[in-house]
Amino acid sequence: MDEPGALHQRNGPAAGARMHGQFTDADTGRLTHALTLSDSCLTVQNISSSSPPEHLDLRDCLWSRAHRGEDQDAYLCVYLYPYRRRWMAWGPGRQRDERRFRLALRTDDNDEDANLREAERWARAINSAQRAEHAHGVLLSEVRRPRGMMVLVNPQSGQGQAMALYNRHIQRMLTEADIPHTLFITERQNHARDLVRSADLTQWDALVVLSGDGLLFEVVNGLMDRPDWEKAIQTPLGILPGGSGNALAASVHHYTRASPVWGEDLLTSCGFLLCKGLVSKLDLVSIRLASGVRLFSFLSLAWGFVADVDIESERFRPIGALRFLLSTLLSLASLRVYQGKLAFLPAESERESSSAGWCSADSRLPDRLLVPLEQPVPQDWTQVEEQEFVLVLAMFQAHLDEDLRAAPDARVDDGLIHLFYVTGGVSRLMMLRLFRAMQSGKHLDLGCAHLVYRRARALRLEPLSTAGVMTVDGERVEYGPLQAQVHRGAARLISA
Ligand code: ADP
Ligand code: MG
């Protein structure tokens, strides 16, 4: 094996090569491969054929490891998940591609471990090269003491397939990436919240949810319930789509700028990002209900059409993600208009706090932009003139659902509330067109006069219609007046 910079006449390393060496194919056992590692790629040249070399992009590499085989030889394994087009699939998705090479180094009879050490040197070099790709962010592997991940699985989420998804994909990916983890299977509603509220967080590098958005909502609120909330909410969170509402997972994938993927392809993409472990800041939105209850949301707040669809779709749970489509069509048939008042603080406002401020005994993430509900909103807020709404939707991430990109410009920690509302008088046909266009995030391009989009930092919503549904992160909350304020980057998420 050669150190970087060594000269080669044939099959030699390209300029900038970190390492170069010869390996036998792990399956056939014939001496065939020359491997060259550069900062961005691993080049595999079959030296017994004239075929062109294969360039394996290290951005697609999950991890690499060395091990001793049953034959006592030393092996180098590289786990790659490149994007590939598949037969019958909509677009490219990440596909697993495992490469195994046997070291072709002749051992010194007195030193049996020389081959293994050399394979380990390669594995380390590959892992550190692919890590260099992330030099702009914080990597979990850099901040974590290797304690492992808490993986919370809701066996009832979606069509009840979350455990099967763990067994088919996630267990193997975490093992390949050498990430220890412990599985917690939730047994009831609020189980995850209780677990997280009392967990010894020094044991975990990250809290990962394999479910829909509802389970992560419990985890976030469980962390904020703790007396040590300030430290607890800094625990990196991970999301793996296993439910029927996988909006955060779809958003995280969207932020990679890759083509959209669904179902198990989305799971593979999120599993890959989880193993890569790049930690970003995540916005949280504090929501105060009239009863005094305070919630922390990472995704959305909905009233009217969107909330009705979400809750009514519960009865179609057995059909999975299609439940939202069916429920959308049914809600369109009985399109309702809700009376209410909406006001918001535009994002352009530079103000850090309102002069009245929020007076509350609760010092967790103080809502400095809000005044109590009994008082009028501050002067620099915008009061929406219309009082008839078909829907009000505040988005904190890009996706409302796996299929609906409601706020395509949203970013994980942009510090913005992407506020949409549709006023009364909109036709059913236009609503259908809006939701179809939302699948590709193009709904604002339709020029619908009833659809308004504003960027805000805080909002107040006061329903006047007596009956209705309000949801936060897809979970139903008590119906009535509420206020919200965004807290930029208050939590942390393993993201792109
Ligand atoms: P989905 O996207 O399918 O709705 P969620 O993750 O949103 O999946 O979960 C829905 C709800 O299921 C959450 O409110 C959570 O509290 C609840 N839950 C968690 N574990 C269980 C369980 N074992 N049985 C029933 N409900 C559960
Ligand atoms: Mg849900």
Protein model, in words:
With 496 residues, the chain is an alpha+beta fold. The chain is 24% helix and 31% strand. It contains eleven helices and 25 strands. The strands form four sheets. Strands 10, 15, 16, 17, 18, 19, 20, 21, 22, 23, 24 and 25 form a twelve-stranded antiparallel beta sheet that branches. A seven-stranded antiparallel beta sheet has the order 4-3-2-1-9-6-5. The longest helix has 19 residues. The chain is elongated. The two termini are 35 Å apart. The structure holds adenosine-5'-diphosphate and magnesium ion (MG).
Q: Residue ranges: pLDDT <50 for 5 or more in a row?
A: 1-11
Let me know the largest β-sheet.
12 strands, antiparallel
Name the average pLDDT.
90
Helix content: 10-25%
How many strands in all? Answer: 25
Shape call: elongated
SS content category = alpha+beta
- Quickly count the helices: 11
Task: Give me the secondary-structure topology.
Elements: E1 19-25, E2 31-37, E3 41-46, E4 54-57, E5 61-68, E6 74-80, E7 83-84, E8 93-94, E9 97-103, H1 114-132, E10 138-139, H2 140-143, E11 149-153, H3 162-176, E12 181-185, H4 191-198, E13 206-211, H5 213-225, H6 229-232, E14 237-241, H7 247-255, H8 263-276, E15 278-289, E16 294-297, E17 300-304, H9 305-312, H10 322-333, E18 338-346, E19 382-383, E20 388-395, E21 417-423, H11 428-438, E22 451-463, E23 470-472, E24 475-477, E25 482-494
Parallel strand pairs: 11-12, 11-13, 13-14
Antiparallel strand pairs: 1-2, 1-9, 2-3, 3-4, 5-6, 6-9, 7-8, 10-15, 15-16, 15-25, 17-20, 17-23, 18-19, 18-20, 18-22, 20-21, 21-22, 22-25, 23-24
Helix pairs in contact: 3-8, 4-5, 7-8, 9-10
Bound molecules: adenosine-5'-diphosphate (ADP) and magnesium ion (MG).
The site of adenosine-5'-diphosphate has 21 residues, from helix 5.
